[in-house]
Amino acid sequence: MASPHTELLTLRDLLRWAVTRFHGANLVFGHGSDNAWDEAVYLLLHTLHLPLDTLEPFLDARLLERERQRCVDLIHERVNSRKPAAYLTGEAWLQGVRFLVDENVIVPRSPIAELLNEQLAPWVEDPDAITQVLDLCTGSGCLAILAAMAFESAQVDAVDLSPEALRVAQSNIALHGLQGQVQALRSDLLANIPAGRCYDLIICNPPYVNAQAMGQLPEEYRHEPRLALAGGDDGMDLVRRILADAPAHMAPDGLLVLEIGHEQAHFQAAFPMLDPVWLSTETASDQILLLRRTQLTP
Predict the structure, then answer these.
(1) Do 129 and 244 belong together in one domain?
(2) What is the pLDDT of residue 57?
(3) Are 60 and 127 in the same domain?
(4) What is the C-alpha to C-alpha distance for residues 208 and 263, in angstroms, rounded to an integer?
(5) Cα 245 to chain centroid, rounded
(6) Same domain, 45 and 129
(7) 187-223, pLDDT tens digit by residue?
(8) Model confidence over 47-88: pLDDT tens digits?
(9) What CATH code is carried by the domain that includes residue 9?
(10) 61: closest CA among 108, 15, 117, 2?
(11) b/e string for 264-297 if b means 16 or more Cβ within 10 A?
(12) What is the CATH number of the domain that holds 283?
């Protein structure tokens, strides 16, 4: 008996079927796309080696049998494994930039990327004056690389505790030819940063998910490394250490840009004396804060 998938002749057919499969399986999105259609488009175009931003001309193209089978297999894998699409394709895109990923790093999606694309205006008045940048909890190195692209005069340290994550970061640094500008360093937050090294800008997307929320994460998110997500009972365990240690490594006019996700209430309870600037992006509000060194120094 012929497989029912032999009736899926065109890319349009496959897209319709994939969206139906995704909805029927109640998949959760949020690792590069936020809906079934966009994720199906990405997975199918990637599998067919077609431009990811060009769908319309190919919608009614008929597929070879082996092409159709590769597409069907990948859609089945997304449904059955519930792994984020980026782990299935080995890549993720952030602000139009491609990054290599595997399950040793969280999937790049930080809204800090949008702020870097704007060179942190208006908070950074002169981008050329940013000469030393630290990306704490760098993971795949995506924010460190975007910072290097935004601030071309800067040397960027990409720091993580996980050696497996740093290997991914080093692959991405090499992918973008930034070995002379971005350095991957292993450190438990700021503990192993060389003494006397001061940064004009520290960016950080740390583990901040509180314990209750960790217990309720959808299966897709549980494929990501727990080390990169869990922030303790109130999500602020690592944030406390960062805010305590950061001033010693900040230039006098240094800035700290910190992502805390949906933990604003926990942040305010933990640090009632701080009055950060809350930065908004197209996709996030009250999730990123900015603090000056002077606010963190007793």
Answers:
(1) yes
(2) 93
(3) no
(4) 7
(5) 24
(6) no
(7) 999 999 988 899 999 999 999 999 999 999 999 999 9
(8) 999 999 999 999 999 999 999 999 999 999 999 999 999 999
(9) 1.10.8
(10) 15
(11) eebbeebbeeeebeebebeebeebbbbbbbeebe
(12) 3.40.50.150
Residue where a domain stops, chosen among 89, 110, 133: 89
Tokens 């990054």 — which residue? 99
> Six-digit token pair at 284?
């996030």
Instruction: Give the CA distances from residue 170 to residues 113, 185, 198, in Å, rounded to whole numbers and listed in that order.
Output: 19, 10, 22
Q: If you write DSSP's letter for every residue of the chain in order, what string do you get?
A: ---GGGG--BHHHHHHHHHHHHHHTT----SS-SSHHHHHHHHHHHHTT--TT--GGGTTPBPPHHHHHHHHHHHHHHHHH---HHHHHTEEEETTEEEE--TTSPPS--THHHHHHTTTTTT-S-GGG--EEEEES-TTSHHHHHHHHH-TT-EEEEEES-HHHHHHHHHHHHHTT-TTTEEEEE-STTTTSPTT--EEEEEE----B-HHHHTT--HHHHTS-GGGTB--TTS-HHHHHHHHHGGGGEEEEEEEEEE-TT-HHHHHHH-TT--PEEE--SS-SSSEEEEEHHHH--
Please enumerate in sequence order all residues whose Cβ is within 8 A of that of 54, keeping only pairs 6 or more positions apart, or say none.
Answer: 45
Specify the residue for token string 């795949």. 140
Structure tokens at 290: 């900015």
Please give the model's pTM, rounded to 2 decimal places: 0.94
Q: Are residues 37 and 140 in the same domain?
A: no
The one-letter code for the residue type at 105 is V
**Cα separations (Å) of 285 from 11, 263, 288?**
37, 12, 7
- The CA-atom distances, in angstroms, between 127 and each of 122, 180, 183, 209, 222 are 10, 19, 20, 32, 37
